[in-house]
Amino acid sequence: MNLDIALYLGQNGVTLGAIYALLALALVLVFAVTKVIFIPQGELMTFGALSLVSIHSGHAPKVVWLLVVLGVVAALLDAGQLLRHRQGSRLAAVLAGDLVWPLLALPAAYLLPLSSIGYPGQILLALLVTVPLGPLLYRLVYQPVAQASVLTLLLLSVALHLALTTLGLFLFGPEGSRLPAFTDGSFTFAGLPVDYQTLWIVGLSAVLVLALFGFFNFTLYGKALRATAVNRTGAQLMGISTAFAGKIAFTLAALIGALSGILIASTTIIYYDSGFVIGLKGFVAAIIGGLASYPAAAAGSIFVGLVESFSSFWASAYKDVIVFALILPVLLWRSLGSHHAEEDEA
Q: For residue 281, is it within any domain?
């Protein structure tokens, strides 16, 4: 390996790390607020990428029908709950919250001239049909068992991952797809060719991380999420709805996942089940960060990306094994450095 190859691998590792950082931040956010290890984060990433592929080819994304079905089921459940508790005055507002995004996404997907709205418009439409899946999945799957143990929520995440993977095969088919780059071409920096798409990926990842920093530190909703993450009971006593906080967390996770999928699909081929492996790498980065620290998760993501990139040069057949093996010494070190506590003591 010479210096040029090392610099190229480093560039590729930083690019991968930027995407893994987004996934890791989403996993840390969801776990901090809801104690859910959100394994289906990878499926939301895949849905966002493949929905944009469909839109870019001029076809309405079939995932919009999944959004409609989930919205209708959530509306029925909320309506039944409100009527049982004699809270009919809130019915219209709650139903509007459940159905507004499906009702916007469905006509947009089938009435807009998809091939004529431009790449930015196509990306926005892909986000419109994908991001609302996050809060709807939380409402239907996790909110009814919000007080369950972490292990129960983990098993629920595994079941949801399997269901969404099967739906992905039905909605998108087995063929892989790749998105065109936002900007074609490259330039030379210090003798190393740098693709403009790499700058897009790293830049958008940095902007999104800074936006999340501003959201958590300078907005009321962000501070509510931080309070819920620190102490759910204390947040409830202060009038913060933990269910609403969970929906916000899942909305942000879905947004991050869909954007991550769009970014990575511009560099490699994405299949209906590609999100699982990519999401696991984000999970490894989140574990390195302790599932609690956003800066540590971001740093762990860059490390994972560099390890994967250099492993692909030295032992390409085992690069995924090497990346996943990173979690073992981290877990061992954490288990030796902390005392065991039962979940009820936490």
A: yes
